[in-house]
Each structure stands twice: as structure tokens, then as C-alpha cells.
Design brief:
With 259 residues, this protein is of the alpha/beta class. It is built from 12 helices and 8 strands. Strands 3-4-2-5-1-6-7-8 form an 8-stranded mixed sheet, sandwiched between helices. The structure holds adenosine-5'-triphosphate and magnesium ion. The site of magnesium ion has 5 residues, from helix 1.
């Protein structure tokens, strides 16, 4: 077994990257062995999946795993099938480390740290899911270079529409220069308020611009999904309501990932 690595990103903040990564990791872990990787110093995925204060993970996060270029000592078991490599504030120092202590110069040196780190545990899992930060910095470049499949998240705003083209350009750039086998699996349109005509217009505009690259599934705002950070995934009466629309998306994603 060697894991397929799927990442969720867009540099626009608040586009449901973390919620989607968390729900996809949770759903996949019902049938497969899954490693979720929090690559955002906000530590939101860590908090979502563990319910813990992210500071508790200090010294045992993806930052230290990348510095060691070995993930094995940094895996936290959420459940038998769902494992996590956490993040917290100090991940914000990753770029400083990369250019000072690590002295990265060539593009491959600075872009493949995460890929090399995850290679040390990849055979233990069926899927590795990466939650990217809302920026096009070194963490995002490393996540893209480590990925087999990238999902671009789109929330229905003009700012996100503007961000999407540049995110995809960054993906093509990484594919061309560092990671030729990486595939953009598609654009997931989410956080839609179906009562708003501007939301409908924007999701149509994304379809018009990007065509088949868009997943057919479009995710709407759902209060239970929004509350997951409070309720968690266990002993949560609302869980089915929170994740139901994600099951259709996951089916589509699996078709694109499994070919
Ligand atoms: N399907 C949904 N329905 C309702 N609320 C949602 C849904 N998905 C996410 N949210 C809420 O929207 C906000 C942003 O979501 P989330 O944190 O997942 O986005 P993000 O892209 O990871 O943000 P950031 O760019 O800060 O990392 C959160 O408050 C979250 O609870
Ligand atoms: Mg997030």
C-alpha cells in the first residue's frame, strides 16, 4: 500500500479548505487508513480533528517533521484509521528555517521538503490529505509538490474568483518545474448560499471559465457543517447532516483519483 496524496487549497481565506479536508479525512477513514496533514499555522485542522488546543502539540508538529525530513515520530492517532500530523503557530517560521538553517537555494530543495517527509510514512496509509494555508507561500508550494491530486476550493466571492486563476497558475508552475505527475483533480465550489443571486452567478461563471475541471457537486452552506469545530465528529447527533453533501463530492473525487 502506498498512499495517494490529495490536497485542498486556495490562497483566499475562509474558503472551507479545512472543513472539507477534515470531513473528507473523516469519511475516508471509515473505509481506509488515512493520514491528515495540517499545513497551516492556524492549526484549524488539528483543532477540528482532535478538539484540543493546538499549543498542546508544540514540538510535535509538521514543522519539526519537515525539519527532520521524517514524519514517523510526529503522527498523532485520532482514531485507529485516522491519524494526524498537527500544526500550530510556529509553522509560520517554516520559510525562515528553509532559507536560513536549511539554506535552500534550488527550487527542488525548497519545494520537496514535505514530499520527502511524507515519503517516510506513505506506505502506512491509503490516503494522505493535506490542508493548505490561505497563502501562496512555501507551505503551499511544498503541499502542491507533495500531492498526487490537488483540489482547488472556490467559495462564491469575487475575491475568490480572482484568486482561483492565480492558484491554478501556481499549480501548473509546480507541475512543470518540480512535480510532473501532480494532477489538478478539480475545482470544488462550496459555501454557496442558494438564495443569493450573486452566488449563483459566480458558480456559473467558474463553470463557464473552467468547464470540466469543476466538480459537478456544489456544496451549500450548512449550519451543522459550520458547527463541526464546536461539536467534533464523535458523539455528534448532527454528523450525518453535516457530512451528507460531502459524500457525493467524495464519490466524484474518488472517480477522478482512481481513474
Ligand atoms: N459547508 C459549510 N457550511 C457552513 N459553514 C461552513 C462550511 N464549511 C466551512 N464553514 C465555515 O466557514 C468558515 C471557514 O471555513 P474553513 O475554516 O474550513 O475555511 P478555510 O478555507 O480553511 O479558512 P482559512 O483560509 O482561514 O484556512 C468556518 O467558520 C467554517 O466553520
Ligand atoms: Mg483553514
Amino acid at each position: 500500500m502506498t498512499a495517494k496524496i490529495i490536497s485542498f487549497g486556495i490562497q483566499k481565506g475562509g474558503s472551507s479548505k479545512t472543513t472539507t479536508s477534515g470531513i473528507v479525512s473523516y469519511l475516508l477513514s471509515q473505509d481506509y487508513r488515512v493520514l491528515a496533514v495540517d499545513l497551516d499555522s492556524q492549526g484549524n485542522l488539528t483543532e477540528l480533528l482532535t478538539g484540543r488546543d493546538v499549543v498542546e502539540f508544540r514540538g510535535k508538529t509538521i514543522l519539526e517533521a519537515m525539519q527532520a525530513q521524517n514524519a514517523s515520530g510526529y503522527v498523532y492517532q485520532v482514531t485507529d484509521n485516522l491519524h494526524l500530523i498537527a500544526a500550530e503557530d510556529l509553522l509560520a517560521t517554516f520559510s525562515r528555517w528553509l532559507y536560513s538553517d536549511f539554506r535552500a537555494k534550488a527550487i527542488n530543495d525548497r519545494s520537496l521538503i514535505l514530499a520527502k517527509t511524507l515519503a517516510t510514512v506513505r506506505d502506512n496509509y491509503d490516503y494522505i490529505v493535506i490542508d493548505m494555508p490561505p497563502a501562496l507561500g512555501d507551505q503551499t508550494i511544498n503541499a502542491l509538490a507533495a500531492s498526487d491530486y490537488v483540489v482547488a476550493m472556490f467559495e462564491a466571492s469575487k475575491f475568490c474568483y480572482s484568486a482561483l486563476g492565480r492558484f491554478l497558475e501556481t499549480c501548473w508552475h509546480v507541475k512543470e518545474r518540480v512535480s510532473p505527475n501532480m494532477v489538478v483533480a478539480g475545482i470544488l465550489r462550496g459555501l454557496i448560499d442558494s438564495r443569493r443571486s450573486d452566488n449563483k452567478f459566480l458558480i456559473g461563471q467558474v463553470k463557464e471559465t473552467y468547464g470540466e475541471l469543476c466538480f459537478d457537486s456544489v456544496l451549500t452552506r450548512n449550519a451543522a457543517a459550520g458547527r463541526l469545530a464546536i461539536t467534533g465528529f464523535e458523539n455528534n447527533n448532527e454528523i450525518n447532516q453535516a457530512v451528507s453533501q460531502y459524500r457525493d463530492f467524495l464519490k466524484e473525487l474518488m472517480q477522478r483519483v482512481e481513474g
